[in-house]
Amino acid sequence: MLARPAAAWLQHLLMMVSSLSQVSASASSESEPGLTGLDGPLPVLNSSTSVIHSGKQRLTVLNLNFWGLGWPWGSDKDVRIQALREELLRGNYDIVLLQELWYKEDYAIVSSAMPYATPYESINSGCTSFLLPIGCSGLAVLSKFPIVEAKLVPFTHRGNFWRFDGEIFVRKGVGVARILWHEKTIDVFTTHMVSYFTKGKENKITRYLQAMETVSLIGLSDADIAIFGGDLNAAPIENQHHPYGMMRSVMKDSLTEKFPSASLHPAFATFGNADNTYTHNSIPERIDYLMFRAKSHIDMKVLDFSMPLFMTMTTEGSAVSLSDHEALLGVYEIEVVRVYNESLPRRALDTIHW
Length: 354
What we know:
Layout: E1 2-3, H1 8-31, E2 36-37, E3 40-41, E4 49-53, E5 57-65, H2 77-90, E6 95-99, H3 104-111, E7 116-117, H4 120-123, E8 128-129, E9 133-134, E10 140-143, E11 147-154, E12 173-181, E13 184-192, H5 201-219, E14 225-231, H6 243-248, E15 252-253, H7 254-258, E16 288-294, E17 298-306, E18 310-313, E19 319-321, E20 328-341, H8 346-350
Parallel strand pairs: 5-6, 13-14
Antiparallel strand pairs: 1-18, 2-3, 4-20, 5-20, 6-10, 7-10, 8-9, 11-12, 12-13, 14-16, 15-16, 17-20, 18-19
């Protein structure tokens, strides 16, 4: 597995964004009163309250739309699936979310690379994937930590047979997995919404309805942390009537949390990226996302966000991308922060269990 180095201009761009963020943080700390800790200014609290910080932990999440169709609909799949397995074995990923992993044999190849994986039947019940993935979701969640629950919630709205885009034959929906991570619960959501290559009004409406169903599911989660990774087949438009804007109403976008002005930058195009060997001639678009949210007592922030730009070699010796989409990699810092009222009687405080 090869990872393409970022172009020099992109590295320079990211350094500039990082520097500006540091300057902004410094200016904020100088203008606001309060104590200063190792990680910057502490929150200004009422004198009768205190904050308890637990140890900081890191969580690494990888998302990839694999483009797992076989020939003649896909290219170099057998080489790419083996390269993906090698990357998962070598990489230090805590959670991996995959879309378009259509075939059972490919599922078995990559799921063997990590300690835990969603059972194939739990997310692909009724799937027949001999030549075409009839009735398959194409979704998978892999983890370094125990997966205690997994299911597919099929979309109510799936597409129109007469659009001839194949959407009606697969079983798209939201894959949901609950993971136990360091005595915390993480609900993971992954999906691949209806195709946008056909520009018809029907698919736009279907995608909107699928986004509504996805947001509703995420809203029901009572986990400490919720993570979404998937292909919305929609651009990052901040509008409550647009799939991205709907998702942003309940979650944070990992890219813009780290690089606020980079949402539409072509360097972060997940499809049609200039460095992708399969789609570099297509219009660059950001349609794949990695998002998160945490309960109020958990401080979760993005330490790093990147697109690894994975590549591998074909049997003919040609370098090819791992998919027609680009992978997304998020590294998060997570810390439990609890606020309690010191004005409570000491005896009451002593009985609180954290």
